[in-house]
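Run log // design_07
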């Protein structure tokens, strides 16, 4: 069980649920961070008394400093603040619940400081791939998945004594709000419709990623790196009920699955208690009340982001960083009402097809690819 924790992105969907788990198990919170939500971060600081708080936005950091002048919490800001929080000497685990590429350098810093990393921030593993995994290995640290599908696979893998027995990973996908729809039905969908996820309550960016199926594309790449599997050995199946969170297939075609209510507090808690299992606030699974499980093939033609991610993975090098960077920009433009829903897929595919991929040797290779992909998106609209 984790005894001391840094939460990057503590005001978000994963961050606040992590604090629920930390409260229940009296985990000592060393640092909390947010982009600019001063009010919520102040509440969290007063309740959890971390020694460090990071407000990414400088103006909000100054505001926070004044508001909590009566406490012992030191306020930092910007990327330097996130890196300092990720490297704190007295913290055992860093749970990265930031959204997007901003989480990459803090993850690398946490590795170098010898921390166990509980990773929700999938974008940075997608973009950083080999660089992140090599940094994990070089520093002898553990990278534990928080993403529900990857936690499911990780839980199933506890029943696989040797990698050679494993044949395939099967990621489940809810299909999101637009499952079964074709391109002509998706032309005019609104941001509100894209934000109405049938099973999960999550931050806005990942909810739109689920609607476009970019989320599943990112998760294929995430699985490739977390579990060292080849792209051809990672399948996706649409499972509308979101009860089976993913499966593994062995050489003998026997399949193991992990099931639970769709509630992120289970994978979050498992990353913090691993290898132990303790009571959870999530209710028991009542299979008879669910009744039926369904399984469908994903629609790679309609959901272009999914095929673009597969292509990016097979191209290798900085291609996944390009797919991710293009999507981060396009997802935001869609939420701002500046582009249509289908344009997201067109831009991600366009970026993967047209931008050159180079091998990732250093952090700047990843950051340059990300920047080029965002520029591609802004110049294409
Ligand atoms: P969210 O938007 O609810 O929260 C993001 C957090 O990061 C907030 O605390 C925010 O203040 C902070 N943040 C955002 N941009 C920042 C920036 N530029 N600089 C510094 N801080 C910044 O997001 P979320 O839904 O909690 O998702 C977090 C990560 O977890 C994402 O990578 C997402 O894909 C992944 N994830 C989320 C869920 C879920 O159920 N929400 C499930 C699986 C994986
Ligand atoms: Mg997931």
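design_07 sequence
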């Amino acid at each position: 069980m984790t005894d001391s924790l840094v939460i990057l992105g503590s005001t978000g969907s994963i961050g606040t649920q992590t604090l629920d788990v930390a409260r229940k198990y009296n985990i000592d919170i060393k640092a909390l961070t947010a982009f600019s939500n001063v009010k919520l971060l102040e509440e969290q600081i007063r309740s959890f008394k971390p020694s460090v708080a990071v407000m990414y936005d400088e103006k909000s950091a100054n505001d926070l400093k004044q508001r909590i002048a009566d406490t012992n919490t030191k306020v930092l800001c910007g990327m330097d603040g996130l890196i300092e929080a990720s490297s704190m000497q007295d913290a055992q685990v860093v749970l990265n619940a930031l959204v997007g590429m901003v989480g990459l350098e803090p993850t690398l810093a946490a590795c170098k400081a010898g921390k166990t990393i509980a990773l929700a921030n999938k974008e940075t593993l997608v973009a950083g791939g080999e660089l992140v995994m090599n940094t994990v290995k070089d520093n002898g640290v553990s990278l534990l998945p928080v993403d529900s599908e990857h936690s499911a696979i990780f839980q199933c893998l506890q029943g696989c004594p040797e990698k050679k027995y494993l044949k395939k990973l099967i990621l489940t996908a809810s299909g999101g709000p637009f499952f079964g729809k074709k391109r002509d039905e998706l032309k005019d969908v609104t941001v509100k419709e894209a934000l109405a996820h049938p099973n999960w309550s999550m931050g806005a960016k990942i909810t739109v990623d689920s609607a476009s199926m970019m989320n599943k594309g990112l998760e294929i790449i995430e699985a490739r790196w977390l579990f060292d599997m080849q792209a051809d050995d990672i399948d996706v199946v649409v499972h509308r009920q979101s009860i089976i969170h993913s499966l593994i297939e062995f050489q003998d075609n026997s399949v193991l699955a992990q099931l639970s209510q769709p509630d992120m507090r289970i994978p979050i808690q498992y990353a913090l208690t691993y290898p132990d299992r303790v009571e959870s606030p999530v209710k028991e699974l009542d299979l008879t009340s669910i009744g039926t499980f369904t399984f469908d093939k994903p629609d790679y033609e309609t959901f272009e982001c999914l095929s673009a991610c597969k292509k990016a993975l097979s191209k290798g090098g900085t291609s996944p960083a390009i797919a991710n960077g293009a999507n981060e920009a396009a997802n935001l433009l869609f939420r701002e009402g500046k582009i249509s829903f289908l344009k997201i897929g067109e831009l991600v595919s366009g970026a993967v097809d047209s931008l050159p991929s180079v091998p990732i040797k250093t952090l700047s290779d990843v950051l340059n690819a990300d920047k080029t992909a965002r520029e591609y998106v802004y110049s294409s609209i």
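Residues 147-149, 219 surround magnesium ion (ligand 2) (CB under 6 Å).
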